[in-house]
Amino acid sequence: MILVTGGAGFIGANFVLDWLATSDEPVINLDALTYAGNRETLAPLEGDARHLFVHGDICDRALVERLFAEHKPRAVVHFAAESHVDRSIDGPGAFVRTNVDGTFTLLEAARAHWSALPAGERELFRFLHVSTDEVYGSLGPNDPAFTETKTYEPNSPYSASKAASDHLVRAWHHTYGLPVLTTNCSNNYGHYQFPEKLIPLMIVNALAGKPLPIYGDGQNVRDWLYVGDHCSAIREVLARGRLGETYNVGGWNEMANLEIVHTLCALLDELRPSAAGSYARLVTYVKDRPGHDRRYAIDARKIERELGWRPAETFQSGIRKTVQWYLDNPGWIANVQSGAYRDWVARNYAGREVQP
Ligand SMILES: NC(=O)c1ccc[n+]([C@@H]2O[C@H](COP(=O)([O-])OP(=O)(O)OC[C@H]3O[C@@H](n4cnc5c(N)ncnc54)[C@H](O)[C@@H]3O)[C@@H](O)[C@H]2O)c1
């Protein structure tokens, strides 16, 4: 089996659902259920013996060691993190704790487990660390896209904490020989994303007739990748990546935030027209985020060259699916917005008879 951390979050939950849709290898899913963890997303796996959900913290060394000892996972896929840049500006402490200390705790527990394995199993063990392109810093308009050898220049507490975790992972390979792999991916979008991030926030606000807040001039550029493509890239790297290597993962799709928002408005105008007129009327410019990186761009040629991976979705196909999903799932959105998703487990099991 594999141990997934943060598998109740946006990408982790998509990964676990996709994994169990394509494989029967069981998953232990360790997640602290912070505000970003949502077990309702994992509802399709309730009662599925291949999925063992453990409510716990990656900083809890005793718990993590116990999971390794009891379940002997052949691999770790490490998603758990504090992931929102704005929140990291507001309260960086949680980012250092989870992203740095938590990764350190996992690495140490993985190292102890891996060192004690018999030779054959030790060679097969993998620790895959899921990271971000934000560690590389900000690009000018004509700079080449980030390659895996780009110097690290993190600018936000979030990216600095992820950069620190990447360095720990690298060092555990070089110093101890732990068989690690790192992926640095661009911005993800898709179903089950918490509506604090740009794309779901804009969809949810537009449908509610609320302003669509654009930071600064809206010309901050990001590369965008459909979440299912990120998950397939991780599966490829886990299966065939070269030990100790990092792989950039991207969608070959650079877009300015304002362009993203106008694309969403146009899709909503088509799929759910509003009597009040185009959703673009709701676009509102707000004061920029402090230290807002101007441009990220990913050169994803290494993963294509070595592992033959390319995204399956274009931005047009992925964003249409995403908007349609949010239109089709108002219950999921309402539960997230009201906070009711936190009670989902209690409600789901309330009144159910225990089977003998
Ligand atoms: N979202 C993106 O666009 C993006 C892009 C590239 C890389 N990443 C990376 O991918 C990973 C997942 O991102 P996401 O967008 O799914 O994040 P998310 O915020 O949606 O989910 C994070 C999950 O981690 C859990 N978690 C947080 N602290 C924990 C702790 N101490 N112990 C156990 N679980 C804890 C949360 O409960 C949540 O379920 C992160 O490492 C992030 O840095 C994200």
Automatic annotation (TrEMBL):
The keyword NAD applies. This is dTDP-glucose 4,6-dehydratase. The keyword Signal does not apply. Residues 3-322 form the NAD(P)-binding domain. It comes from Thauera phenylacetica B4P. It catalyses: dTDP-alpha-D-glucose = dTDP-4-dehydro-6-deoxy-alpha-D-glucose + H2O. Its EC number is 4.2.1.46. Keywords: Lyase, NAD. Its cofactor is NAD(+). CDD domains: dTDP_GD_SDR_e (cd05246). It comes from the Bacteria. GO terms for biological process: nucleotide-sugar metabolic process. The lineage of its organism: Bacteria, Pseudomonadati, Pseudomonadota, Betaproteobacteria, Rhodocyclales. InterPro entries: dTDP_Gluc_deHydtase (IPR005888), NAD(P)-bd_dom (IPR016040), NAD(P)-bd_dom_sf (IPR036291), Sc_DH/Rdtase_CS (IPR020904). GO terms for molecular function: dTDP-glucose 4,6-dehydratase activity. Belongs to the NAD(P)-dependent epimerase/dehydratase family. dTDP-glucose dehydratase subfamily.
